[in-house]
Write a structure and sequence with these properties.
The protein is an alpha/beta fold. It folds into three domains: about 10-160, Alpha-D-Glucose-1,6-Bisphosphate, Chain A, domain 3; about 165-390, Alpha-D-Glucose-1,6-Bisphosphate, subunit A, domain 3 (Alpha-D-Glucose-1,6-Bisphosphate, Chain A, domain 3, 3-Layer(aba) Sandwich), CATH 3.40.120; about 395-505, TATA-Binding Protein. The chain has 14 helices and 24 strands. The chain has helices at about 20-35, 55-65, 80-95, 135-140, 160-170, 195-205, 235-240, 270-280, 310-315, 330-340, 365-380, 385-390, 405-420, 485-500; strands spanning about 10-15, 40-45, 70-75, 95-100, 110-120, 120-125, 155, 185, 205-210, 245-250, 255-260, 265, 300, 320-325, 340-345, 350-355, 360-365, 395, 400-405, 430, 440-445, 460-470, 475-480, 505. The strands form four sheets. Strands 1, 2, 3, 4, 5, 6 and 7 form a seven-stranded mixed sheet that branches. Strands 18, 19, 20, 21, 22, 23 and 24 form a seven-stranded antiparallel sheet that branches. Helix 1 packs across helix 2 (about 55-65), helix 5 (about 160-170) packs parallel to helix 11 (about 365-380) and helix 8 (about 270-280) packs across helix 12. The radius of gyration is 22 Å and the shape is globular. Residues about 285-295 have low confidence and may be disordered.
């Protein structure tokens, strides 16, 4: 059936019973044909803790070996950031390495998927990457092209965990026991990143209270998404019992992070402040070393949900904010285009320019990111109170989501929501950046100039970002920031009322 393929905007994602084994095999054959077109001869393969990941990994490894690739396999559950390091390290010896990460990120347990990097550790998406990235893979998938090979490849099983931890700590400028005295409540939601972070924190001397540490593809606490409302309540409660503790949460594959303390969870825009300060000041052996002195080190990308107040703080620190849409691979491509040192998504994604010897990549490293935050806290414990005060001075909903009967109903509800706000006086609507880049959603705002991020905020203002989920069916995502709770709650109620009128139910 046409368009019955697993490819989404940022990666591939599908429900475990959605495709036959033959269809999944054809998908991976298409991936390897695409890799061959780029000259790839080596592939790294990792998986997260999902129940469906093992079977998909077997298919990926078998086809890779049969196709003549050198296959480097990490069979233990691994985070997506570790998978990127694995591909980066392998690329030192094999420059034509393609990286396959079998994961469905923060999605519920019945989803599985694939993230891909091509030489050298360059993430691809739909219409993003060499030859169009996943767009080219889709073309191959529907074509009659076959993968032929005159010889079998080789298979090597590797677990790069220790090297990954050492690398990440060195990049953050953190030594063994150098963060002694810090307490962390870590909730990894039974995902693959928990053991990696736990081990790194213990090396750094941090006292750790873990929640849902053991990787479990059943995800007993539900969808492993720490930014969903209420998800981090148990971790915040644990911080109450351990005064002064920092709260950290990660999603199913460990590339999404939230920070907080006993007073609650911080929005990513505010949590990013000590991290981006460290980057532009050159803390540790950070990725900024690859651009420092070239005039690029103050460029940081943000998505439409980042609080305007956080952007004002960025500007005060000498950072030049660049607006871009949500999207992992697309953001990484844009980082390369504008030579940004970092990027922040309110969904909890923190991106860096990370180097290893003579090569570098744009991507996530949750150990590095969280250690920068904890190092800043160690140097100045009052910073958490300052971040909390900034966040409490404005209103944000966090991301809230509605599930509908089908995509058509969701799209109708979304159109009604945006149309309702567009009718109000002095409301601005944005569908793209000032450079014309599609935001893949709608920004509705009043009292703000979206083309002048970081300006001083005065009077009453609000900003809402509304979009369809790109990797889950019939899901509408919403996020609201406002100058005060009164106006923020009013907008939130309107969104909820309209969603429910169309049969939407609030979901994780």
């Amino acid at each position: 059936m046409k368009n019955h393929d697993p490819i989404k905007v940022y990666d591939a994602r599908w429900e475990t019973d959605e495709f036959s084994k033959q269809e999944i095999m054809r998908f991976f054959e298409s991936v390897y044909i695409y890799g061959r077109e780029l000259g790839a001869d080596t592939v790294t393969i990792t998986r997260d803790a999902r129940n469906g990941a093992g079977e998909v990994m077997e298919i990926a490894a078998d086809i890779g070996v049969d196709s003549g690739f050198n296959v480097y396999l990490c069979t233990d559950p691994a985070s997506t950031p570790m998978s990127y390091y694995f591909a980066l390290k392998t690329s030192l010896k094999h420059p034509k390495t393609m990286g396959l990460t079998i994961t469905a990120s923060h999605n519920p347990g019945n989803y599985i998927g694939l993230k891909i990097t091509v030489p050298v550790v360059r993430a691809i998406g739909l219409d993003s990457g060499p030859l169009g990235g996943f767009t080219r893979i889709r073309e191959i998938y529907y074509s009659r092209e076959k993968l032929s090979c005159s010889r079998k490849g080789g298979l090597v099983i590797v677990n790069p965990l220790e090297e990954y931890i050492t690398y990440s700590m060195e990049k953050a400028g953190v030594n063994k026991n150098s963060l002694k005295g810090i307490t962390v409540v870590l909730n990894s939601f039974s995902g693959s990143a928990g053991p990696e972070l736990f081990k790194a924190y213990r090396y750094a001397g941090i006292r750790v209270f873990p929640l849902l540490l053991i990787p479990d593809g059943n995800f007993p606490a539900g969808a492993p998404n720490p930014i969903s409302r209420g998800k981090m309540d148990s971790a915040v409660s644990a911080a109450h019992r351990n005064k002064g503790a920092i709260v950290i949460g990660t999603d199913g594959d460990g590339d999404r992070i939230v920070f907080g303390n006993e007073r609650g969870i911080l929005n990513a825009g505010f949590a990013s402040l000590p991290i981006v300060y460290s980057l532009i000041k050159g803390a540790g052996q950070t990725a900024a070393e690859t651009v420092r002195g070239k005039g690029y080190e103050n460029r940081i990308i943000y998505d439409p949900k980042v609080s305007p107040l956080a952007l004002f703080e960025w500007k005060n620190a000498g950072i030049t904010p660049y607006l871009f849409r949500n999207g992992h691979s697309q953001i990484k491509e844009y980082m390369n285009t504008v030579k940004a040192v970092a990027a922040v998504e309110e969904s909890g994604h923190f991106y860096h320019n990370l180097s290893l010897n003579s090569i570098s990549m744009y991507g996530e490293n949750s150990i590095f990111t969280t250690l920068l935050f904890l190092k800043a806290f160690k140097d100045n414990p009052s910073i958490i109170d300052r971040l909390r005060a900034l966040q409490d001075s404005v209103f944000t909903t966090g991301e809230f989501n509605f599930k509908f009967k089908n995509d058509r109903t969701r799209d109708t509800a979304l159109k009604k929501i945006t149309g309702t706000f567009e009718k109000e006086e002095n409301v601005e609507t944005a569908y793209s950046t000032k450079e014309g880049i599609d935001l893949q959603g709608t920004v509705i705002s009043r009292g703000l100039n979206l083309n002048s991020p970081g300006k001083k905020l005065t009077g009453t203002w609000y900003s809402g970002y509304f979009r369809s989920s790109t990797n889950e069916k019939a899901i509408l995502r919403a996020y609201i920031s406002a100058s005060n709770a009164g106006i923020g709650r009013q907008i939130e109620r309107k969104v909820m009322e309209i969603s429910k009128q169309y049969g939407g139910t609030e979901t994780e």
